[in-house]
């Protein structure tokens, strides 16, 4: 892995240059007391003074709503227009934290474990992730409990760690390297710093080993009901999660033509698994909470060898009834 | 990397519509793109996602046998908005199909065995595919017995085929309707599937039982099979969970770590018993 230095000014100039070259730049933008990834046209819009954005960055590869294809009906006949890959712009996502970058691996696992998912893969192919290590954290962060860290390079193409007056740049992938090589004048020599000194201290909250051992064998445990008694089934946890990929397929019809859409969905919703007959395999909220945790910590590791959680803590921050996933996982690991 | 869009359906021409029972229709579908039709292969037990453009997709099995080439058939009950829109289509019109998805009945393993089919209501379609597959390769199998029950005489689907099976000397067909569902000229059994099965008293010797039906029927049929001496290895069924994608991504149909769309829809009773009770 190549290491370089980039000053703050050069970084801003580099992003401006990338924007001018036609890349679509996504970066954290503050609005009120919330910060979220937005498509920016000027680096002036970027705000880095946040611990965590409200939403994850997954929408760059898995948009909240996306067109899978279009159809036109005429006299009983139908013509289809396939998903158009040519309209997907080259995209640079700047300022995501390592927990968000790491989230793209489980997403890719879900979208590719059996058959490749064209829309997701085409968006990923055109996306470069420039992550920034965390220098601060809050009580909801638990990346270090799920094999992550505030300076983890997994998933990023380039990882910047804020050091004095600028950044240590770790160039991780070929994609990252080509973006740096194209504009090498913005970069200087390896600053030779100890990266760890600049990172936030995120305490380990539970033993992952213990959690793994317990969670796969506790389908019938009373813990699911206890933990989910106040769950409203609002789905906020799934919408803010960097690895949640459950989706619905819906029709967007306009008279004789329309689009087949893929939309975010959530396993916490009561209608999610409801059959047409009215039978519902997960009719209780406790069954849906169990599905959420087992999917992330048991089924995904078993089927696609990747955990569905990066410890970003967003679900706990977003929960309207203060369900704290790290506390619940700690409880399970200690059973 | 495969560059095709797994969400883009094949366009299918509705070639023939059969009204099977009140609200139940069978569509014979032909690929609009001849080459796609020629390249299409599937096996007994697999399913697809059927599109009514403007309303969306619904999941049904492929109800025709892979031995019958050049078309596929699906049978559905008009229930929700997609099936209602499909039911409005006329012969010659176009709909969509994605598939085949899911696993298959192990027809090769069953060679030389007797087959006992037990179906209830609208669950005969997934079994009809297997029945015709077996009858079209009749020399591969021993005795073929079919027990089919519906709420009423009117609700029995595939009435012409039931007649055909009844008349075949190499098929034993028993039909039954729920008490009160019989007509004055009804010659079949009256009673629920599990009790008629008990009366039929089929031998478990070298026999595979394939059971499809509403959950309540399956629940009461399994103990009867067990009593008759059928072992879990020789009992098969299908699960039908809600699905959207059909290819293991949308997150709905899993039972524990097993996806009905990938690891099913066909499960042996051994596999079924290993699943958590959440289906």
TrEMBL record, chain A:
Keyword Metal-binding: yes
Xref: SUPFAM superfamilies: alpha-helical ferredoxin
Keywords: Iron, Iron-sulfur, Metal-binding
The protein's name in its UniProt record: 4Fe-4S dicluster protein
Chain ranges of the 4Fe-4S ferredoxin-type domain: 220-252, 300-329
InterPro entries, sorted: 4Fe4S_Fe-S-bd (IPR017896), 4Fe4S_Fe_S_CS (IPR017900), Helical_ferredxn (IPR009051)
Short name of one Pfam family: Fer4_22
GO-annotated molecular function: iron-sulfur cluster binding; metal ion binding
UniProtKB/TrEMBL annotation, chain B:
InterPro entries hit by this protein: Cbr1-like_FAD-bd_dom, Cyt_c3_hydrogenase_gsu, Dihydroorotate_DH_ele_sf, Dihydroorotate_DH_Fe-S-bd, FAD-bd_FR_type, Flavoprot_Pyr_Nucl_cyt_Rdtase, FNR_nucleotide-bd, OxRdtase_FAD/NAD-bd
Residue ranges annotated for the FAD-binding FR-type domain, each copy included: 7-107
Annotated [2Fe-2S] cluster binding sites: 245, 250, 253, 261
Alphabetical list of PROSITE patterns matching this protein: FAD_FR
Keywords: 2Fe-2S, Electron transport, FAD, Flavoprotein, Iron, Iron-sulfur, Metal-binding, Transport
GO biological process, one term: pyrimidine nucleotide biosynthetic process
Co-factor(s): [2Fe-2S] cluster
GO molecular function, one term: oxidoreductase activity
Cofactor: how bound: Binds 1 [2Fe-2S] cluster per subunit.
Domain of life the protein comes from: Bacteria
Name of the protein described by the UniProt record: NAD(P)H-flavin reductase
Organism the protein comes from: Dysgonomonas alginatilytica
